[in-house]
């Protein structure tokens, strides 16, 4: 059977994974600008290009992290505050069913098990979850928004744009971690980044040089074979 050679694009896609520990090494502004320019070639319905990106570094990144971490701590202390921190769109289903709940559990058990965090260890779970809000110490934090007037199809377009960023980053030796964990704190994030009243938060992303020695970065999620999700029609 013919086996095509692995090319640079294949390698970039296959080597992409969500990294959760980064080195402090800065990423040049020119590189970030280049990644966003390349990513903008993503397709979008009637070329609407619904994406808006905000780049946080230095003080702006740390200040946002502090604000959201305080809110995250307050939410843990008083769960009734959850009503104040609602995601603007449903990222996950209201009711989980198989096989999706099984994959979700496998992911959670795999990550927390690797880190030695047991199901009942709420303090460690909270601390690890809060690493999201520190961008996993990445030097660059990205926030993505789009206008609320746009339809759900624009979220499909947005996925292509985000994937372009993550794959292009690999071509420059960088890693990323896309993060929907930020979405519930949009009321804090949007004013901080100066987003307009008509914008909604799509997600955040960490960008930088991954710490390849970090235990957490050895975690790699499995994928279902294409044979299992593909139907061939002749």
Salient structural properties:
single chain, 234 residues, alpha+beta, four-stranded antiparallel sheet
Put simply, the count of helices is 8
Global geometry: globular
Largest sheet: 4 strands, antiparallel
The count of β-strands is 4
Classify the oligomer.
single chain
Distance between the termini: 21 Å
Q: Runs with pLDDT <50, length 5+?
A: none
Helix content: 40-55%
Notes on the structure:
It is a single chain. The chain has 234 residues and is an alpha+beta fold. The chain has eight helices and four strands; from the N terminus they run H-H-E-H-H-H-E-H-E-H-E-H. A four-stranded antiparallel sheet has the order 1-2-4-3, with helices on both faces. It is globular, with a radius of gyration of 19 Å. The two termini are 21 Å apart. The mean pLDDT is 96.
Question: Strands, helices and their partners?
Answer:
Elements: H1 8-15, H2 29-39, E1 52-56, H3 58-77, H4 100-114, H5 122-130, E2 140-147, H6 153-171, E3 175-179, H7 186-193, E4 199-208, H8 226-229
Antiparallel strand pairs: 1-2, 2-4, 3-4
